[in-house]
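Full entry
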Amino acid sequence: MYNLEQLRMFVETVDAGSFSACARKVGKVQSAVSQGIANLEIDLDTQLFDRSTRKPQLTKEGERLLIYARSVLQQVQEMNAVAKGINLGEETSIKIAIEDALFVPRLSQILLSFGEKFKATPLKIISAASPDIAAIVKEGKADIGLMFLEVEIDKHLVQHYIGNLPFVAVCSPKSELSTIEELTMHDLIPYRQIMLHGQEGEGLDLMSQFSTEVWWGTSFYAIKELVVHGVGWAYLPSSLVADSITRGNLIDLNMSFDHKPWSPLVEIVTAKNRSIGPGLTWLTKELKTLFADRTCD
Protein backbone atom coordinates (compact mmCIF):
# COMPACT_ATOMS: atom_id res chain seq x y z
CA MET A 1 0.00 0.00 0.00
CA TYR A 2 1.34 3.43 -0.87
CA ASN A 3 2.35 5.85 1.88
CA LEU A 4 2.57 9.60 2.53
CA GLU A 5 6.23 9.74 1.57
CA GLN A 6 5.41 8.43 -1.90
CA LEU A 7 2.63 10.99 -2.29
CA ARG A 8 5.08 13.74 -1.33
CA MET A 9 7.56 12.48 -3.93
CA PHE A 10 4.79 12.52 -6.53
CA VAL A 11 3.78 16.10 -5.74
CA GLU A 12 7.35 17.39 -5.35
CA THR A 13 8.37 15.86 -8.69
CA VAL A 14 5.54 17.74 -10.40
CA ASP A 15 6.40 20.98 -8.62
CA ALA A 16 10.17 20.69 -9.07
CA GLY A 17 9.99 19.44 -12.66
CA SER A 18 12.16 16.31 -12.42
CA PHE A 19 13.04 13.30 -10.26
CA SER A 20 16.49 14.72 -9.53
CA ALA A 21 15.09 18.07 -8.41
CA CYS A 22 12.59 16.26 -6.20
CA ALA A 23 15.42 14.18 -4.69
CA ARG A 24 17.31 17.33 -3.75
CA LYS A 25 14.15 18.81 -2.22
CA VAL A 26 13.31 15.78 -0.05
CA GLY A 27 16.92 14.91 0.77
CA LYS A 28 17.10 11.56 -0.99
CA VAL A 29 19.05 10.07 -3.86
CA GLN A 30 17.37 10.14 -7.26
CA SER A 31 17.07 6.36 -7.44
CA ALA A 32 15.04 6.34 -4.22
CA VAL A 33 12.62 8.91 -5.63
CA SER A 34 12.29 7.05 -8.94
CA GLN A 35 11.66 3.77 -7.13
CA GLY A 36 9.18 5.40 -4.72
CA ILE A 37 7.09 6.82 -7.54
CA ALA A 38 7.32 3.53 -9.48
CA ASN A 39 5.97 1.71 -6.41
CA LEU A 40 3.19 4.29 -6.12
CA GLU A 41 2.22 3.65 -9.74
CA ILE A 42 2.11 -0.09 -9.02
CA ASP A 43 -0.10 0.41 -5.96
CA LEU A 44 -2.44 2.71 -7.88
CA ASP A 45 -2.26 0.52 -10.98
CA THR A 46 -1.87 3.77 -12.95
CA GLN A 47 1.02 5.36 -14.85
CA LEU A 48 1.53 8.83 -13.41
CA PHE A 49 4.38 10.05 -15.62
CA ASP A 50 5.35 9.68 -19.25
CA ARG A 51 9.09 8.96 -19.09
CA SER A 52 9.71 8.99 -22.85
CA THR A 53 10.97 12.57 -22.75
CA ARG A 54 14.02 14.05 -21.01
CA LYS A 55 11.85 15.34 -18.19
CA PRO A 56 8.92 13.28 -16.84
CA GLN A 57 5.55 14.57 -18.01
CA LEU A 58 2.29 13.99 -16.15
CA THR A 59 -0.15 11.68 -17.87
CA LYS A 60 -3.83 12.60 -17.98
CA GLU A 61 -4.40 10.05 -15.22
CA GLY A 62 -1.56 11.61 -13.24
CA GLU A 63 -3.14 15.06 -13.58
CA ARG A 64 -6.38 13.74 -12.08
CA LEU A 65 -4.67 11.95 -9.18
CA LEU A 66 -2.39 14.93 -8.43
CA ILE A 67 -5.41 16.88 -7.15
CA TYR A 68 -6.18 14.14 -4.63
CA ALA A 69 -2.55 13.73 -3.61
CA ARG A 70 -2.30 17.43 -2.80
CA SER A 71 -5.56 17.24 -0.85
CA VAL A 72 -4.37 14.28 1.24
CA LEU A 73 -1.09 15.99 2.09
CA GLN A 74 -2.90 19.22 2.99
CA GLN A 75 -5.28 17.36 5.32
CA VAL A 76 -2.36 15.59 7.00
CA GLN A 77 -0.63 18.92 7.49
CA GLU A 78 -3.77 20.40 9.05
CA MET A 79 -4.25 17.35 11.29
CA ASN A 80 -0.67 17.68 12.55
CA ALA A 81 -1.24 21.38 13.24
CA VAL A 82 -4.40 20.61 15.21
CA ALA A 83 -2.65 17.88 17.20
CA LYS A 84 0.17 20.31 18.01
CA GLY A 85 -2.36 22.89 19.17
CA ILE A 86 -4.10 20.35 21.42
CA ASN A 87 -0.77 19.43 23.01
CA LEU A 88 -0.06 23.12 23.60
CA GLY A 89 -3.34 23.47 25.52
CA GLU A 90 -5.24 25.51 22.93
CA GLU A 91 -8.98 25.85 23.47
CA THR A 92 -11.36 23.36 21.83
CA SER A 93 -13.39 26.37 20.63
CA ILE A 94 -13.87 30.08 21.32
CA LYS A 95 -17.22 31.87 21.20
CA ILE A 96 -17.15 35.57 20.32
CA ALA A 97 -20.21 37.83 20.42
CA ILE A 98 -19.93 40.76 18.01
CA GLU A 99 -22.05 43.84 17.45
CA ASP A 100 -22.77 43.60 13.71
CA ALA A 101 -21.88 47.25 13.12
CA LEU A 102 -18.30 46.39 14.12
CA PHE A 103 -17.66 43.99 11.24
CA VAL A 104 -15.09 46.37 9.77
CA PRO A 105 -12.43 45.03 7.32
CA ARG A 106 -9.74 44.93 10.01
CA LEU A 107 -11.87 42.52 12.06
CA SER A 108 -12.00 40.02 9.20
CA GLN A 109 -8.21 40.22 8.91
CA ILE A 110 -7.81 39.47 12.62
CA LEU A 111 -10.17 36.50 12.48
CA LEU A 112 -8.41 35.16 9.38
CA SER A 113 -5.05 35.37 11.15
CA PHE A 114 -6.54 33.59 14.15
CA GLY A 115 -7.68 30.73 11.93
CA GLU A 116 -4.21 30.36 10.47
CA LYS A 117 -2.50 30.47 13.87
CA PHE A 118 -4.91 28.35 15.94
CA LYS A 119 -6.03 25.54 13.68
CA ALA A 120 -7.11 23.44 16.68
CA THR A 121 -9.56 26.11 17.85
CA PRO A 122 -12.64 26.84 15.75
CA LEU A 123 -14.40 30.16 16.29
CA LYS A 124 -18.11 30.39 16.95
CA ILE A 125 -19.29 33.89 16.01
CA ILE A 126 -22.48 35.22 17.58
CA SER A 127 -24.01 38.34 16.02
CA ALA A 128 -25.86 40.35 18.66
CA ALA A 129 -26.91 43.89 19.53
CA SER A 130 -24.53 45.68 21.91
CA PRO A 131 -27.07 45.90 24.77
CA ASP A 132 -27.25 42.07 24.81
CA ILE A 133 -23.56 41.25 24.60
CA ALA A 134 -22.58 41.86 28.23
CA ALA A 135 -25.22 39.39 29.42
CA ILE A 136 -24.18 36.84 26.78
CA VAL A 137 -20.59 36.95 28.08
CA LYS A 138 -21.59 36.90 31.76
CA GLU A 139 -23.81 33.87 31.22
CA GLY A 140 -20.97 31.99 29.54
CA LYS A 141 -22.66 31.92 26.13
CA ALA A 142 -19.61 33.73 24.73
CA ASP A 143 -15.99 33.91 25.87
CA ILE A 144 -15.44 37.45 24.63
CA GLY A 145 -17.63 40.28 23.39
CA LEU A 146 -17.03 43.18 21.00
CA MET A 147 -19.55 45.95 21.54
CA PHE A 148 -20.29 49.62 21.98
CA LEU A 149 -19.36 50.84 25.43
CA GLU A 150 -21.78 50.53 28.33
CA VAL A 151 -21.53 53.56 30.60
CA GLU A 152 -22.29 51.51 33.72
CA ILE A 153 -19.31 49.43 34.82
CA ASP A 154 -20.19 45.77 35.38
CA LYS A 155 -18.29 44.18 38.27
CA HIS A 156 -18.56 40.75 36.64
CA LEU A 157 -16.76 41.82 33.46
CA VAL A 158 -13.32 42.99 32.43
CA GLN A 159 -13.81 45.90 30.02
CA HIS A 160 -11.16 47.12 27.59
CA TYR A 161 -11.77 50.36 25.69
CA ILE A 162 -10.27 49.97 22.18
CA GLY A 163 -11.43 52.98 20.14
CA ASN A 164 -14.54 54.50 18.61
CA LEU A 165 -16.67 54.34 15.47
CA PRO A 166 -18.14 57.47 13.84
CA PHE A 167 -21.90 57.60 13.19
CA VAL A 168 -23.87 59.81 10.82
CA ALA A 169 -27.56 60.68 10.67
CA VAL A 170 -29.17 59.46 7.44
CA CYS A 171 -32.53 59.32 5.72
CA SER A 172 -33.96 58.23 2.38
CA PRO A 173 -33.79 60.69 -0.54
CA LYS A 174 -37.62 60.42 -0.54
CA SER A 175 -37.87 61.76 3.01
CA GLU A 176 -38.86 65.38 3.59
CA LEU A 177 -35.89 65.61 5.94
CA SER A 178 -33.56 65.41 2.92
CA THR A 179 -34.85 68.79 1.72
CA ILE A 180 -33.88 70.66 4.92
CA GLU A 181 -30.44 72.21 4.59
CA GLU A 182 -29.63 72.27 8.32
CA LEU A 183 -31.71 70.36 10.86
CA THR A 184 -32.43 71.38 14.44
CA MET A 185 -33.66 69.07 17.19
CA HIS A 186 -37.12 70.61 16.77
CA ASP A 187 -37.15 69.69 13.06
CA LEU A 188 -36.72 65.99 13.89
CA ILE A 189 -39.70 65.69 16.25
CA PRO A 190 -42.41 64.73 13.69
CA TYR A 191 -40.29 62.25 11.73
CA ARG A 192 -40.03 58.58 12.70
CA GLN A 193 -36.66 57.67 14.19
CA ILE A 194 -35.31 54.11 14.15
CA MET A 195 -33.03 53.09 17.00
CA LEU A 196 -31.11 50.06 18.22
CA HIS A 197 -32.10 48.05 21.25
CA GLY A 198 -31.47 44.56 22.58
CA GLN A 199 -33.72 41.55 23.02
CA GLU A 200 -34.71 42.78 26.47
CA GLY A 201 -35.55 46.27 25.23
CA GLU A 202 -32.41 48.02 26.45
CA GLY A 203 -31.15 50.79 24.18
CA LEU A 204 -27.62 51.82 23.34
CA ASP A 205 -26.06 54.07 25.96
CA LEU A 206 -25.54 57.68 24.84
CA MET A 207 -27.87 57.33 21.85
CA SER A 208 -30.54 60.02 22.13
CA GLN A 209 -34.19 59.94 21.07
CA PHE A 210 -35.23 63.04 19.16
CA SER A 211 -38.52 62.04 17.55
CA THR A 212 -41.89 61.45 19.18
CA GLU A 213 -42.36 58.24 17.18
CA VAL A 214 -39.62 55.62 17.45
CA TRP A 215 -39.24 52.18 15.93
CA TRP A 216 -36.68 49.74 17.27
CA GLY A 217 -34.40 47.11 15.73
CA THR A 218 -31.78 44.70 17.04
CA SER A 219 -29.46 45.09 14.03
CA PHE A 220 -27.93 48.15 12.41
CA TYR A 221 -28.08 46.32 9.09
CA ALA A 222 -31.86 45.91 9.45
CA ILE A 223 -32.21 49.55 10.50
CA LYS A 224 -30.24 50.62 7.44
CA GLU A 225 -32.60 48.74 5.13
CA LEU A 226 -35.62 50.38 6.76
CA VAL A 227 -34.06 53.83 6.32
CA VAL A 228 -33.17 53.14 2.67
CA HIS A 229 -36.82 52.33 1.99
CA GLY A 230 -38.06 55.50 3.66
CA VAL A 231 -39.44 53.98 6.87
CA GLY A 232 -37.63 56.51 9.04
CA TRP A 233 -34.32 58.19 9.77
CA ALA A 234 -31.48 56.94 11.99
CA TYR A 235 -27.96 57.40 13.26
CA LEU A 236 -25.87 54.65 11.64
CA PRO A 237 -22.15 53.78 11.53
CA SER A 238 -20.47 55.76 8.76
CA SER A 239 -18.61 52.63 7.61
CA LEU A 240 -21.96 50.90 7.09
CA VAL A 241 -23.62 53.66 5.05
CA ALA A 242 -20.73 55.33 3.19
CA ASP A 243 -21.32 53.41 -0.05
CA SER A 244 -25.08 54.02 0.08
CA ILE A 245 -24.51 57.75 0.55
CA THR A 246 -22.10 57.81 -2.39
CA ARG A 247 -24.63 55.99 -4.61
CA GLY A 248 -27.41 58.35 -3.55
CA ASN A 249 -29.47 55.68 -1.76
CA LEU A 250 -29.10 57.56 1.53
CA ILE A 251 -28.76 61.23 2.44
CA ASP A 252 -26.24 62.39 5.05
CA LEU A 253 -28.25 64.77 7.22
CA ASN A 254 -26.67 68.03 8.36
CA MET A 255 -27.47 68.37 12.07
CA SER A 256 -26.94 71.86 13.46
CA PHE A 257 -26.14 70.41 16.91
CA ASP A 258 -23.54 67.87 15.70
CA HIS A 259 -20.38 69.94 15.70
CA LYS A 260 -18.35 66.81 14.90
CA PRO A 261 -19.35 63.19 14.15
CA TRP A 262 -20.93 61.29 17.01
CA SER A 263 -18.45 58.49 17.73
CA PRO A 264 -19.52 56.01 20.42
CA LEU A 265 -16.76 54.16 22.22
CA VAL A 266 -16.06 50.50 21.47
CA GLU A 267 -14.93 47.95 24.03
CA ILE A 268 -13.94 44.31 24.48
CA VAL A 269 -15.55 42.47 27.39
CA THR A 270 -14.54 39.20 29.03
CA ALA A 271 -15.80 37.55 32.19
CA LYS A 272 -13.80 37.89 35.40
CA ASN A 273 -12.42 34.80 37.11
CA ARG A 274 -12.68 32.72 33.95
CA SER A 275 -9.68 30.81 32.59
CA ILE A 276 -8.15 32.23 29.44
CA GLY A 277 -6.21 30.00 27.05
CA PRO A 278 -3.61 30.97 24.45
CA GLY A 279 -6.17 31.46 21.68
CA LEU A 280 -8.35 33.86 23.65
CA THR A 281 -5.26 35.68 24.94
CA TRP A 282 -4.04 36.23 21.37
CA LEU A 283 -7.50 37.24 20.13
CA THR A 284 -7.97 39.78 22.93
CA LYS A 285 -4.59 41.34 22.21
CA GLU A 286 -5.30 41.62 18.47
CA LEU A 287 -8.81 43.02 18.94
CA LYS A 288 -7.29 45.85 20.95
CA THR A 289 -5.69 46.98 17.66
CA LEU A 290 -9.00 46.99 15.76
CA PHE A 291 -9.05 50.78 15.51
CA ALA A 292 -5.31 51.34 15.79
CA ASP A 293 -5.25 53.20 12.45
CA ARG A 294 -8.22 55.40 13.35
CA THR A 295 -7.91 58.70 15.15
CA CYS A 296 -10.42 58.84 18.00
CA ASP A 297 -12.64 61.88 17.91
